[in-house]
Design brief:
The chain has helices spanning 12-27, 49-59, 77-80, 86-95, 129-138, 157-164, 203-210; strands spanning 5-8, 32-34, 41-45, 69-70, 81-82, 100-106, 120-124, 141-145, 170-173, 184-187, 194-197, 218-219. By secondary structure, the protein is α/β, with parallel strands linked by helices. It has a single domain (5-219), classed as DHBP synthase. Strands 1, 2, 3, 4, 5, 6, 7, 8, 9, 10, 11 and 12 form a twelve-stranded mixed sheet that branches. α1 (12-27) crosses α5 (129-138). The relative contact order is 0.23.
């Protein structure tokens, strides 16, 4: 059984220690639990195939369900994806950082293995200071909701540790998350976007941005 290092972020010193411990664990190829603006997430270095596989194993997921990638800046999107359509950039400009995940065609030169992505990558920039601070030190992270498959996503560190404590090195305890609802996922690989999963952002909120461009989303969520 792994002895989990659980660290709070109440004071500035605690926050710095927690961020550095999480970043160090990621660089060592280990898993960490982080608070985000939606739910708690379990994270691994996106460019470490063994760490990504450990993340999938911890959740009880197969390779057919690859994790999204979190980034610290919107400009990182172009390092990970190609052919990002204008409507996707409009959504990013309006909703990043925030609870929007966009699926784009990935850069073919990327040396990573997230699972069976079919040449795509799902990317999000979270609206959470601690998560962003860790991302600034690690680079892109493969992050999925901190839960075992079939159970609700963790909304606090207790729930995350209860489900994933045996698999992670560090749990950053940022208190209960404000959101509690997963991000909305939009497929941006075609000329018109499609909602793949309904979440914190509604179709109406998204289309408020896109209807003036003449490319409203369809909803498959």
């Amino acid at each position: 059984m792994t002895l989990v290092k659980r660290l709070g972020v109440t004071t500035e010193d605690e926050r710095e220690a927690a961020i550095e411990a999480a970043a160090t664990a990621v660089r060592r190829g280990l898993l960490v639990v982080l608070p985000t603006d939606t739910v708690y997430g379990v994270a691994a270095d996106a460019f470490d195939a063994d760490a990504v596989q450990a993340l999938l194993d911890a959740k009880g997921r197969g390779r057919e369900m690859p994790p999204p990638v979190l980034v610290s800046t919107a400009t990182t999107l172009d390092a990970l994806a190609v052919g990002v359509p204008t409507y996707a950039r409009a959504l990013v400009e309006r909703f990043w950082p925030g609870p929007l995940t966009i699926v784009c065609r990935q850069q073919t030169s990327l040396q990573w293995d997230l699972g069976e992505t079919r040449g795509t990558v799902a990317v999000r920039m979270p609206d959470h200071e601690v998560a962003l601070a860790v991302l600034e030190r690690t680079g892109p992270l493969a992050v999925s909701s901190a839960n075992t498959t079939g159970l609700p996503a963790a909304r606090d560190a207790d729930e995350a540790e209860r489900m994933l404590g045996d698999s992670v090195e560090v749990v950053v305890d940022g208190g209960p998350v404000d959101g509690g609802e997963a991000s909305t996922i939009v497929d941006c690989t075609g000329p018109q976007g499609r909602v793949l999963r309904r979440g914190a952002l509604s179709l109406e909120e998204l289309n408020e941005v896109l209807e003036p461009l003449g490319v409203p989303l369809t909803d498959e969520g």
